[in-house]
Amino acid sequence: MRVRFLTAAALCAASALACAGGLARESARAQGRPAGELPRKGFAGVQIGPVPEDVRARLKLPAGQGLAVMRVVAGSAAAEADLAEGDVILEAGGKPLASAEEYVAVVGRMNAGDKLTLTVLRGGQRLSPTLTLKPRPFETSPDFEVLYRSVATPAGRRRVIVTRPKGQGRFPAVLMAGGIGCYSLDNLPPDDAYARILYGMTLKGFATMRVEKTGMGDSEGPPCRSPQADLREEEAGYLAGLRALKSYDFVDPGRVFIVGHSIGALVGPLVAAEEPVRGLVVAEGIGTDWFEYELENFRRQTLLAGVGYDETERRARQARACKQRLLVEKQTLEQILKDAPGCSAYLEGPAPYTYMQQLADLNLAEVWKKADAPVLIIYGTSDFLTSTEEHEYLRDMINSFRPGTARYVKIEGMAHGFERAASQRENFERRRSGAPTEFHTQVFDEIARWLTAAAAQS
What we know:
Layout: H1 13-18, E1 42-43, E2 46-49, H2 53-59, E3 67-72, H3 77-80, E4 88-92, E5 95-96, H4 100-108, E6 115-122, E7 125-127, E8 130-132, E9 134-135, E10 145-153, E11 156-164, E12 171-177, H5 193-203, E13 207-211, H6 231-247, E14 251-261, H7 264-274, E15 279-283, H8 290-304, H9 309-328, H10 333-339, H11 353-361, H12 364-370, E16 375-380, H13 388-401, E17 406-411, H14 424-433, H15 441-456
Parallel strand pairs: 12-13, 12-14, 14-15, 15-16, 16-17
Antiparallel strand pairs: 1-9, 2-3, 3-4, 4-5, 4-6, 6-7, 6-8, 10-11, 11-13
């Protein structure tokens, strides 16, 4: 039995996986943009999925060819081009489609107003509709203002999405550093974990900022899954975002915080070491060497999958040999897989190999020593991607540099994506099955209480 290995770097968590869900939301906002601002990416308005096997057999489609139209958004470009549920899209922009990722890669490069020609199979007949893409909907709220802005990095402009509380004056602010992976933070569904935290803090009087990853959403820069999209590129986006956030006329630059989740718990102190902040909240992260962490995480998840201890140790030895070549010896994936094809089962990751190699290079103690700010550390006991020991180690590490500045909170029954789960095993099974989850509200209460108190200190 092969275990699909998740890392705390698969740290996309619940928030990342849900991000596409808000695209159907309409906005009354005008679609114009300031001169020099990032153009809005195009929105086709079609939900796609695998072609059902009975449909594939009836249409005599080869395996892996085409994508089924699952839903068409009313009033969208797809609706205006008369696409319908049950259609099968064979090509987009002249490129054959075998996966949803390929479709997203084509549409994701296109701006509002661009034309996209599809090859569609409907009842055995081939059609070639052309869609004029509309702007992606803007996120709005009746309770606060949502601002779409951008920041410049050496690799291109990055979209930032800012929430501003109602009222006048300068507000404390939060920069959210999320999990690893390729996803958009635009149009977060209201029940998304990140949305619950960001919106909740805005209602408590904090401005907030999200930074889109390179090549995602409206952002320019190298594609998110390319080797150029490494850790330094991600850090550059957050650093530019933090500096911009401090410069806004409605933000108090002396009361700006970073909330880092998952891999964001490592990116947060990297950014804070370059640009001072009032404090950091880090949740479901690690404090130890990344190479060691990956091996321990592999062993933990293999056992949770029901694999016996003897087989787990056999696989752990193989994983160690493969990860040694990638993370320590800094070989490319191509080099490793050419010499050791069996390593493909142990080197799956949510980020380019260059990103993972840079993670492994970090001395986290050195990073945290430079990030001179008080810290709230949060761990949920049902998180199977990390452990209590890693968080306690992080607390002790920070307090060794700055005694009394790190506070540790353990939340019973909370898992990696801030969802409720009775145990690590239950959370593991839910993740594998895709079962729905419920947000654990205590995590917001702990974050809000700590940030509010820290912002009030003179």
